[in-house]
What does this fold into?
Amino acid sequence: MKYDLVIRGGTVASSIGCFRADVGITHGKIAALADRIDAESAEVLKADGKLVLPGVIDVHTHMEHGSGSDVTVDDFENGSKAAAAGGVTTFMDFVIQKEGRSIAESFALRNASASRKSVIDYSFHIALMDVNEEIIAEIPTAVREISSSFKVFMTYRKLGFMLDDDTLLRVMDTVGNCGGMVIVHAENDAMVEYLTEKHLRENKRAPIYHAESRPNLVEAEAVNRVIQFSTVTGCPVFVFHVSSREAMHHVREARSRGLKIQAETNPHYLLLNSDRYEGPEGQNYIMTPPLRSVRDSEELWLAVRTGVLQLLSTDHCPYHKRHKAGGKTDFTNVSPGIPGIELLLPLIYSEGVRKGRISIERMVQVLSAEPARVFGLQPAKGAISIGADADLVLLDPEEQWTVDPQSLFMSSDYSPFEGLTLTGKVEKTLSRGRVVFSHGEILVEPGTGRYLFR
Ligand code: URP
Ligand code: ZN
It folds into this structure.
């Protein structure tokens, strides 16, 4: 057999174990896995001492996303480059359906930008914000032609993002009936508004009051509610960014009853805590839901290990410090969200695998295999197996480096993980057999990524 490329001498990490193997690639797909592959005329990439991982799939990003007055500072070009530099080979962002626009129009608008700019493959969830009879009627076609996952917000009413309970049930009924899935940002908006107004009235405006206005209960109530809605409608639900142990307990209990509930968390909820809001740059950590306690993080790690949570993503929603500055004296005067996509794999490898919190096999599951399974990308994505796309990462497992926002591809002028020393660095990232990123450089032109219909 003739190969275009052979990856020679690495240790392949799969979701069931690690083994020494060469990887043969033909026409962008994995064509062979063997102890020794005869390269003949193929290009050879040396991977001695390196881990060869399936490309990471980040199912939760917000590139060129406008919420309130600011737009996130990574567009599809820069954001996808940052992704590739961090070993991500597929990302999932959002079609934003709002202001009377149809889903098809909203998709065309968003994809016009992403398709010109992305250096890696990508897909969209459809975020429904202005639901009426026409939108409900359009859902079956959207499932067939664009995407089968629909994002809804149970909060952000003042920004016009939130669906009320009646509309949410209607959407879940329709999406469930056509074989789709609803993804939720679960926070009880009325409780958030009540607590926010109370704190502002009492002149409690420092960043810590962002967390105090969105306590664990706020998330747990909304997660529990959407689980009950799933029971009534039969619609499968995926819960984004589970941050609190109480919300996670609802997910665990629902899953133990066999309900169609799946969920994720993000590295910041595993590795950072609410004491950050009391530091000198507390406003830079404002995201929703907020950072929680050490105990919450510990319980979330356990949930990742034991499969209560299926996967990890970033909720990459990057801003500059200047966009966060207003939050220092008024926690409501800030666009929520933090940068993350480039650090997902490095953080989870260094702080998870190397520190013994999860096995490398579980890391491969939560970063690649499970995102592909949950969001319908198997068998092309998510595993190093014959016939799959050659989306691969070569990771040096021993290289130590310190997070410095200046040397990352992500545009933000800060990182919540700045100064953290990590073990393990992405050396190369391949997308469908092409080297996209190598030793600090992006090697392909914008627009080489493809939209993945699911
Ligand atoms: O603070 C966050 N998470 N911003 C991004 C939008 C969202 O809520 O997912
Ligand atoms: Zn969210």
Remarks:
- The first strand starts at residue 5 and ends at 8.
